[in-house]
Amino acid sequence: MSEGRKRRSIVRNRRATHEFSIEETIEAGIVLVGSEVKSIRDGRVGLADCHAVFEGNELWLRNLHVAEYPQANQFNHEPLRPRKLLVHRRQLESLRGKVEREGYALIPLEIYLTGGRVKVALGLGRGKKAHDKREAIKERDARREMARALKG
Length: 152
Hints:
This protein is an alpha+beta fold. The chain has helices at about 15-20, 35-40, 90-100, 130-150, and strands at about 5-10, 20-30, 45, 50-55, 60, 65, 85, 105-115, 115-125.
């Protein structure tokens, strides 16, 4: 991301960091139609159960719910249609290798606006086991208790 561009977060996937241990993040553009962009700017988008998959030489975002834009009437979009992600070729090949050979998953972490364009932050991570999730919860609670104690 270049200096001077404002970044406005639209939606974050809070469950992603709980379910997966994220090792790397990648910024990607999304191919959208006009009514989708307007709906996303209004914050009418959901990342629940959303994931990125490879199809041929392209990366697609599945199960991203973008609510219909009320003023678009007959020219509206389908809320759950697959959306193409825009990444550099080298990045795409590197991600494909990690996902297919090393067992990683591509999870959308955040959708945001930067320079008038809608972008998605993808996390490359592995699924956490139940005991890892419990440890993360204990650490978070311990930090919260320490902050309360210091606060007074």
